Amino acid sequence: MDNQLLPCLPTSLSKLSRLAVLGAVAAAAVIGLGTHGAAPVPPATMKAVRIHDYGDGSKLVFEDAPKPSPAKGELLVKVKAAGVNPVDWKIRSGMFRGGLEFTMPATLGFDVAGEVAEVGEGVKRFKEGDKVFAYLALNRGGGYAEYAIVTEKEAAAMPKELDFVKAAATPLTALTAWQCLFDVAKLGKGQTVLVHAGAGGVGHFAVQLAKWKGARVIATASAANSEFVKSLGADEVIDYKAVRFEEVVKEVDVVLDTVGEDTTNRSAAVLKKGGILVSIAGDPDPAKFAERGVRVAMHLVEPNGEQLAKIGKLIESGDIKPHVSQELPLKDAAKAHQQSESGRTRGKIVLVVG
């Protein structure tokens, strides 16, 4: 071998020096460096729950996935818990195809709580080791994993009063309630609000936030959840299975519709003139609302770290609190989706990651 490689080395070197160079090259090859730099490093991986196609709960696969790295303005968060929301299984089922597309395989999950593992260039408000919670943008997701990318604008410091599970139960639903009630409906002190499904993920935060604002709160719920919703601050709870709400509720300023179907348009009858219905689930008939002189709006929640920080302060002060009905390990995401799809969840379901 020496005789074949020796001619490739400068003739100005002595044979001894040339043999020394060859020895170094051979040693490098033995330890895997070769003559063209370091050997390729296998990409880092993590455990995640992903979908490779739209469909039922069986499409959720617990598997290895590439570990992401933060870009400018981003945090890499070591996820401790991830919230489960109806939008998760609606996306999984393909309900939003044509409007909200994901590159497959896709990692769902839009509520996370965890610790900052790494910060990208330009991040100023957070550092490695900080405890944070966040709502991840719907067009990105990534919460059902051991690590997730969170933009600095999405994140807020985790309330000191909460553990990771309750923190993960908060962002998407609390922000939805906040934005619907205060940004869109402009709910104020002394007004009356009807919250549909007051025991649900959005509903149980809406009841508490409206009460904190000084509003009178009416909520619909099943009889089994009546006392729970009253404990959140509701002044009146209507058993929607036993009573048609529009027969007993009149002249409210705001309706928050989290149910959809016929509940949306039936709600026009309970609003006072100039009132507003804000829906996150329905398909309102504008004519039905216009003929009564009331307004209607649809709202899709947006990530907002500043608002989430305000919600965190209300949690720390005891004005509001998240309710978790079920905790499951990450690998059991399909079971969590099945429970969420039943429509019988009190508060939130949370996946425990690590």
Q: Biggest β-sheet: count, sense, barrel?
A: 7 strands, mixed
Low-confidence stretches: 1-35
Percentage of residues assigned to helices: 25-40%
The CATH topology of the largest domain, please? Answer: Quinone Oxidoreductase, Chain A, domain 1
Q: What is the structural class? A: alpha/beta
First-to-last CA distance: 54 Å
Total helices: the number is 12
Q: Can you say what the CATH homologous superfamily of the largest domain is?
A: Medium-chain alcohol dehydrogenases, catalytic domain
What sequence of helices (H) and strands (E) makes up the elements?
HHEEEHEEEEEHHEHEHEHEHEHEHEHE
Highest-level CATH class of the largest domain = Alpha Beta
Number of domains: 3
> How big a fraction of the residues is strand?
25-35%
Q: What is the tally of beta strands?
A: 16
Radius of gyration: 27 Å
The pLDDT mean sits at 90
Tell me what the CATH architecture of the largest domain is.
Answer: Alpha-Beta Complex
What best-fitting shape do the alpha-carbon axes yield? globular
Report on this model:
- The protein has 354 residues and is of the alpha/beta class.
- It has three domains: 1-41, no CATH class; 45-170 and 322-352, Alpha-Beta Complex (Quinone Oxidoreductase, Chain A, domain 1), CATH 3.90.180; 173-298, NAD(P)-binding Rossmann-like Domain (Rossmann fold, 3-Layer(aba) Sandwich), CATH 3.40.50.720.
- The protein has twelve helices and 16 strands.
- The longest helix is centred in the N-terminal third of the chain and has 16 residues, at 15-30.
- It starts with a helix and ends with a strand.
